[in-house]
Design brief:
The chain is built from 12 helices and 17 strands. By secondary structure, it is an alpha/beta fold. Strand 16 and strand 17 form a beta hairpin. The longest helix is centred in the N-terminal third of the chain and has 12 residues.
Length: 378
């Protein structure tokens, strides 16, 4: 397929509109018209990953962390990012990165972390704000079901664990077409009164284009009347972080041992144990310290993330059990999400997990240096 085809899918499945405003998710480099038949998945893009992609015949590298994160004014090789970008251009390897779009999407990185940790009753810790719109349209009564099915299929009408949600009211519409019209019902030049159904439903704003397209294709009128209203409601199915519960209460030591095993963490940093059981747990992939106060307000016994600072442990030591499993370890499962999304859409597309361990952090423990270890994606 062409690169633009898979980019279009990824841009839709992992909406660019929900990335953080500091981020640079999406296609980093590559000609959208280039032909690709395989891709290499890696948490980061390094020179070694680009070489691996070339050696394995993959013309596309899909990563979580973006190659171009800070603005570039030139590509002279003066920074590591410039060197890697120059190499990708030289080798004609495209790079696509998901980053905070994948963090925030429904079923994103923190939700996958919760699944790996064995949590149940999970929900988003910090839902998206200002990401929902309401669609209102008016349809001839005998076509209402057809239109509802079309917009539901396009993604509208999902509220929590319910789908196909709408409100419907019966009434009538009036219109008069001029001589250039070909009205579905009534006659041109004459005022017509038609029994209609007012359909109201809700959707994420990033689905507006697809849903309106589906509405237009299913609606019988030449001119389709519809309204889109921005909503102040939070989008509870998407956002940053996750909170859930363990199947049984754990001691803090048991909880740490479980995390070390599930996330293959070479070293875990944690705050002073309180002796209290761990039942409700909040998590955030990557560097999630900004969500600690929210985790506390939501009654979490523990908060699991990466990149915690010295003073984070000082500031919240008495309020919550803080656990730092490492940035890499908390986000490596993002590759599993990317793999599953792509294979579901393109079953015959060849995907490979990179064998390059890009974690720049090693661990010194028990008198020896430990590498970050191998990964098993079964």
């Amino acid at each position: 397929m062409k690169l633009r085809e898979i980019c279009r899918f990824l841009d839709s499945a992992i909406p660019l509109s929900i990335q953080e405003n500091y981020d640079n998710s999406g296609l980093q480099t590559g000609d959208p018209e280039m032909e690709i038949d395989s891709a290499l998945l890696s948490l980061d893009v390094t020179a070694e990953v680009i070489e691996e992609a070339e050696g394995s015949g993959c013309r596309l590298v899909i990563t979580h962390h973006p190659l171009i994160f800070r603005p570039l004014k030139a590509v002279t090789g003066s920074t590591k990012a410039e060197q890697i970008l120059a190499l990708a251009l030289k080798k004609d390897i495209a790079v696509y990165s998901s980053h905070t779009s994948l963090d925030a999407r429904t079923g994103g990185v923190s939700i996958r972390m919760a699944e790996k940790a064995g949590l149940v009753k999970t929900r988003v810790l910090k839902p998206l704000e200002g990401a929902l719109v309401k669609l209102v349209t008016f349809v001839p009564a005998d076509h209402a079901q057809i239109v509802r099915e079309a917009i539901f299929k396009a993604g509208a009408g999902v509220i929590g664990n319910y789908d196909m949600c709408s409100f419907n009211a019966e009434g009538y519409g009036t219109f008069r077409g001029n001589e250039q019209t070909n009205p579905f019902t009534g006659r041109k030049g004459e005022l017509h009164k038609e029994p209609e159904t007012r359909i109201e439903t809700i959707m994420p704003s990033y689905l507006s284009k697809e849903v309106v397209k589906a509405l237009m294709e299913a609606h019988p009128y030449e001119e389709v009347a519809y309204d889109l209203y921005p909503l102040a409601n939070t989008f509870t199915a998407a956002g940053m972080g996750c909170i859930g519960e363990t199947l049984k209460p754990y001691s803090e030591q048991e909880f740490l041992a479980n995390l070390a095993e599930k996330f293959n963490a070479g070293t875990i940093r944690y705050s002073s144990p309180s002796g209290k059981p761990v039942k409700r747990v909040a998590l955030c992939g990557g560097a999630g310290a900004s969500l600690i106060p929210l985790a506390i307000r939501n009654g979490a016994d523990a908060f699991v993330t990466g990149d915690l600072k010295y003073h984070d442990f000082f500031d919240y030591d008495k309020n919550i059990f803080l656990v730092d499993i490492g940035h890499y370890e908390s986000e490596i499962s993002s590759l599993e999400i990317l793999h599953d999304l792509i294979i579901e859409k393109f079953p015959t597309f060849a995907l490979r997990f990179s064998q390059v361990v890009t974690n720049p952090i090693n661990h010194y423990r028990y008198g020896k240096i430990q590498s970050t270890g191998d990964r098993d994606f079964s």
